[in-house]
Amino acid sequence: MASMKVVAFGDSVTVGTSAKLDVFHDCFQYGTTTVNMVRQTQTWWSILERILSDWVEGGVEVVNAGASGDTSSKGLARLRQDVLSQSPDYVLVMFGVEDVLQGIETEAFRKNLEKIVNGIAAQGARPVLMTPTPISERMTACGCALEELRRRQQRLSHLAQVVRKLAEEGSLGLIDLNRYFLENRLAYDHLFEGWLPDGVAQSGMASFVAGEILQILGIKNFPKPTLCDYRKIYSDAKRPDTKNNAATSLVFFGGRFYVGFDSGPRHAGPRHRGIVLKSVDGISWQKEAVLEISDVEDVGSPYLIEVDGRLFGYATTTVGFGMASQEVA
Question: The whole model's pTM is what?
Answer without folding.
Answer: 0.80
